[in-house]
Amino acid sequence: AQTVTQSQPEMSVQEAETVTLSCTYDTSENNYYLFWYKQPPSRQMILVIRQEAYKQQNATENRFSVNFQKAAKSFSLKISDSQLGDTAMYFCAFMKPHLYTGANSKLTFGKGITLSVRP
Amino acid sequence: EAGVVQSPRYKIIEKKQPVAFWCNPISGHNTLYWYRQNLGQGPELLIRYENEEAVDDSQLPKDRFSAERLKGVDSTLKIQPAELGDSAVYLCASSSRQGRHGYTFGSGTRLTVV
C-alpha cells in the first residue's frame, strides 16, 4: 500500500515571495504519478501540477514547479511570486495507474498543508 | 464544458436519518469516484466506478453506505442510517479512461450529522 506524508500542517509566506511545500511518499511501485492539488474554501480540488515517475525532468506550470527526487521518494512544490489567491490547502497525491491500460486509478492523498499568503 | 456537478452543497441531518448525495460527472468520463474528506484530512476513496460497474468498493462501509451509477452516467451515494462520525465532505470526481493526469473534482457536499 502507498502512503503520502505531509509533515507541515501550516505555512505562511509574504506576497511575492517563494515558498516550498514538502511531501514524501512510500511505494514499491516503479511506475506512478504524483500530483499537487489545491483546495480553496470553495472545497473544489484543483489540479496544480503533475509528475510522471518515469520522467526525470521536474514538472513546471507557470509559477509552480516541483522537485522530484525519486530515489528519496520526495516530491516538493515550489510556488514562486506568491499571490493572495494562492491561499488554500494543498494536497500531495499519489496514483498507481492501471497496470495494462495506464488508465487513472485511485488517488492516495496526504493530510494537506494550509498555506496562507500575507499581503 | 460543465464540470463535475454535485448536490446538495450542504446537508444537515439528525443521526439515524437517511441521506443521499448526487453527482453528475463530466460528459464522456467513464470513471467516477466518490471520496470522503474528514475535517483536516485528505480525501479517501470510498468507491470507484468504471461505467456502471463498481470496480473498487473495498473502503465503502457496506452496512450503511450504498452507491449506484445508473446507465454509467449520474451517481448517487446513500447513507442509511447516518451516524455522527459520518460528518464530512463527500467529493465526487470523474476521469476519462485515456486521461493519465489526474481527474476533475466536484465542489463536494458537506454533511453534518447532529
Brief synopsis:
Chain A is mostly beta strands and 119 residues long. Helices cover 0% and strands 50% of the residues of chain A. In chain A, strands 2, 5, 6, 10, 11 and 12 form a 6-stranded mixed beta sheet that branches. Chain A has a 4-stranded antiparallel beta sheet with strand order 3-9-8-7, with no helix packed on it. A two-stranded antiparallel sheet of chain A has the order 1-4.
List keywords for this structure.
heterodimer, A: 119 residues, mainly beta, Immunoglobulin-like, 6-stranded mixed beta sheet, 4-stranded antiparallel beta sheet, 0% helix, 50% strand, B: 114 residues, 7-stranded mixed beta sheet
Question: What name does CATH use for the topology of chain B?
Answer: Immunoglobulin-like
Assembly annotation: heterodimer
Strand content of chain B: over 45%
Q: Strand pairing plus helix content of chain A: what structural class? A: mainly beta
Distance between the termini of chain A: 41 Å
Look at the structure and give the CATH class of chain B: Mainly Beta
What do we call the CATH topology of chain A?
Immunoglobulin-like
Report the radius of gyration of chain A as a whole number of Å: 14 Å
Q: What does the radius of gyration of chain B come to?
A: 13 Å
Helix count of chain A, per DSSP? 0
User: What is the mean pLDDT of chain A?
Assistant: 93
- Runs of chain A in which pLDDT lies below 50 for 5 or more consecutive residues are none
Give the CATH H-level superfamily of chain A: Immunoglobulins
Tell me the β content of chain A.
Answer: over 45%
CATH domain class of chain A: Mainly Beta
Biggest sheet layout of chain B: 7 strands, mixed
Helical content of chain A (DSSP H or I, runs of 4+)? under 10%
Number of domains of chain B: 1
